[in-house]
Write a structure and sequence with these properties.
The complex is a heterodimer of chains A (316) and B (324).
Chain A lengths: L2 H12 L1 H18 L4 H6 L5 H11 L5 H13 L5 E2 L5 E2 H36 L5 H14 L2 H15 L16 H8 L3 H16 L2 H8 L4 H14 L2 H12 L4 H7 L4 H10 L3 H29 L11
Antiparallel strand pairs in A: 1-2
Chain B lengths: L19 H10 L1 H18 L1 H4 L33 H38 L1 H16 L2 H13 L2 H11 L6 H18 L1 H15 L2 H8 L4 H37 L11 H8 L2 H6 L1 H29 L1 H4 L2
Helix pairs in contact in B: 2-4, 2-14, 4-5, 4-8, 4-9, 4-11, 4-14, 5-9, 6-8, 7-8, 8-11, 9-11, 10-11, 11-12, 11-14, 12-14
The chains are: A mainly alpha (316), B mainly alpha (324).
């Protein structure tokens, strides 16, 4: 691996460090400055000043915010993400990781559907350009994309579960037939975006000389489409795939809430509302760090896959 | 809920801005885009004229059993909701909320930040460019919805203080509460709404900056402001419009989503999010399908129309995809 490209990527992403720091400070202050804190939520009806003061001292909420921030950061660099006040002081790691794993698995299946369908649909639409099929295909998928999930879900639940009775509602583990519908609902609306991107990419490749050459030397259309057009058009797809990976660890807030899936999306909504300071912060920071890592991986992937990108030469 | 259209749709080098009339002609030759424009015109007219068009007061409740959750009828086109309010009137006012919100976000996040920072980054280049673009890059990688939720949740706690003050000291009166919620929502959306736009604008500026007419203007001593507004901006506008129309559904969707979760505009003020939340559970839908259908259809078509329009505009502006 040449040092140039990786160096460039890392230089570019060093910017992420100050920005992530700034965001951690902003989010930290924003949450602490809002009136009402986790102690109010924990005590609820049984609120009395003495116990509240005791609890605030225990979590350090009685300290100045700047000091709380430094304590938090210090713990963070020692691998301690804090405790979840919403979950009886379980550590953030214990609360978040299992739920994140649930969401990630569901998200991976959904991505498989999104890209597995989106890529061929996009290729097909591009090849059908100029006929009525191209706009018809793209605009039909766009329609699905325009329906908010929280509208799509009750409609699907009613139609498939109550009317037809072919699926069951209620969470029953990830590897059960109950998950078919949620995964479809998570994956299918994204097809439009992937298909549109793929279509534009294929159309770009269609104009290349090597496609004309391939056709001119009498290759079968199938071969041209599969190994000349699609393979080259797929290259820019790496970015789209890579950038959608970090997102799935954040879970799907609406989907998980409406289907009762114990994933991180549902947890993050409750954590924001509670509020559960350390969980929200951990999720925001985790999300941004993962995004930075994804960017590095994407650049490396290009260098490995595309021989035209010279190792050691800076890009852009 | 992606707020930012991806810059990848817009390869910079082949952009050619068609003449204004040719542009409109090519747009209206596309049937779907034409239908989309017509629908959007109706939606905007209905929302803006809501106080005139609405047959009933959207907040007037009729809580007797026979008045609640009525099906559609001649008196109530869309029926009535769970508190006996006329749903058609509430939908019109929800459209108004959507319009106000998108206009506010487009003005601040789209034009002021998106266009402004994009122009600045592209024209000035150097460290300013790096700072703006890298900040945007990291912001776009954050868990947007979670942060928007956190911002709204944190600031909503202070609604009472601010809205009582506004009620006593300004002309807003009864509307202060909604106004404050509205401001929080815009404030939660804008930090994420400028990124895509500024990226598109920047890459277009980079292409234009090298043109000889820019050099000529600079040589004649035009200052940065004049060069940007008189010479660069006209070339950037078409691309900016395309980016904006592609991102519109995402912007409007942010309000609908947050309101659905009770962190945006909530009753008595009407928003599609809260209307859908009121109707959108499977058992409610089974019993009263009109509640969800009537509140969701107008806004789904609004999203769809903007997406179709954005798609059509990309096709027109991007010669590579249209030339055959």
């Amino acid at each position: 691996m040449g040092p140039g490209l990786l160096g460039y990527t890392i230089r570019r992403l060093l910017w992420a460090i100050p920005v992530i720091f700034a965001i951690s400070i902003i989010v930290f202050y924003m949450m602490r400055l809002a009136p009402g804190d986790p102690v109010d939520t924990i005590l609820g009806q049984r609120y009395d000043e003495e116990r509240a003061a005791k609890l605030r001292a225990k979590y350090g909420y009685d300290q100045p915010i700047i000091e709380q921030y430094f304590t938090y950061m210090n713990n963070l660099f020692h691998g301690d993400l804090g405790v979840s006040t919403r979950h009886q002081d379980y550590s953030v790691k214990e609360v978040v990781l299992p739920k994140m794993w649930v969401s990630t698995q569901i998200g991976l299946f959904a991505l498989l559907i999104t890209f597995g369908l989106g890529i061929p649909v996009g290729i097909y639409a591009a090849l059908a350009r100029g006929t009525f099929l191209d706009p018809l295909i793209i605009s039909s998928w766009l329609f699905l994309d325009a329906i908010p999930v929280f509208v799509l879900i009750p409609l699907c639940q009613w139609f498939f579960a109550l009317k037809l009775g072919i699926v069951d509602l209620g969470y029953d583990g990830i590897y059960s037939t109950h998950m078919i519908m949620p995964i479809m609902i998570l994956g299918l609306p994204g097809v439009a975006g992937v298909a549109r991107f793929m279509r534009a990419s294929v159309i770009g490749v269609l104009g290349e000389d090597y496609i004309r050459t391939a056709r001119a030397k009498g290759l079968k259309e199938r071969t041209v489409v599969i190994s000349h057009i699609s393979r080259n058009a797929l290259l820019p797809m790496i970015t789209i795939i890579g950038l959608s990976l970090p997102g799935i660890t954040g879970g799907a807030i609406f989907l998980e809430t409406l289907f009762g899936i114990p994933g991180i999306g549902q947890e993050s909504l409750s954590a924001v509302l509670a509020p559960d300071f350390d969980v929200v912060l951990a999720l925001v920071l985790f999300g941004s760090v993962l995004f930075v890592l994804a960017n590095i991986v994407i650049d490396l992937a290009y260098a490995v896959i595309d021989p035209r990108i010279r190792l050691g030469a800076g890009r852009g | 809920m992606a707020l930012a259209p991806t810059a990848e749709y817009f390869p910079t080098e082949d952009f050619a801005a068609p003449k204004r009339w040719a542009f409109a002609k090519r747009l209206f030759r596309k049937k779907l885009a034409t239908i989309a424009v017509v629908y959007l015109a109706i939606f905007y007219a209905a929302g803006i004229l809501a106080p005139v068009v609405a047959p009933y007061d959207p907040n007037q409740q009729h809580v007797t059993v026979q008045d609640r959750r009525q099906g559609p009828s001649a008196e109530h086109f869309f029926g009535t909701d769970s508190l006996g309010r006329d749903l058609f009137s509430r939908v019109l006012y929800a459209a108004r909320t959507t319009i106000l919100f998108t206009v506010a976000v487009v003005l601040t996040g789209g034009i002021f930040l998106g266009l402004g920072l994009g122009l600045l980054a592209g024209y000035r280049g150097g460290w300013l460019d790096t700072a703006i673009m890298r900040t945007g890059e990291v912001l776009s990688g954050l868990p947007t919805l979670l942060l928007m939720l956190a911002i709204s949740a944190a600031f909503r706690q202070r609604i009472n203080d601010v809205s009582f003050w506004l009620q006593d000291n300004t002309f807003l009166g009864e509307d202060s509460r909604t106004f404050v919620k509205f401001t929080i929502l815009v404030g939660a959306t804008v930090p994420f709404a400028w990124i895509g736009t500024s990226r598109i604008v920047r890459s277009q500026v980079l292409a234009i900056r090298e043109s000889s007419y820019i050099t000529a203007a600079e040589m004649m001593g035009a200052n940065t402001w004049r060069v940007l507004t008189r010479h660069v901006l006209p070339g950037v506008l078409p691309v900016f419009m395309v980016g904006l129309s592609g991102g519109m559904a995402g912007i409007a969707g942010a309000e609908v989503g947050l309101s659905y979760l009770g962190l945006g505009i909530d009753p008595p003020a009407a928003s599609f999010g809260s209307l859908i939340n009121d109707a959108g559970f499977v058992r409610t839908f089974q019993q009263y399908p009109h509640l969800l259908l009537a509140s969701a259809t107008p806004v789904v078509l609004f999203f769809y129309a903007w997406n179709l329009l954005g798609d059509a505009l990309v096709d027109i502006l991007e010669p590579r995809t249209t030339r055959r």
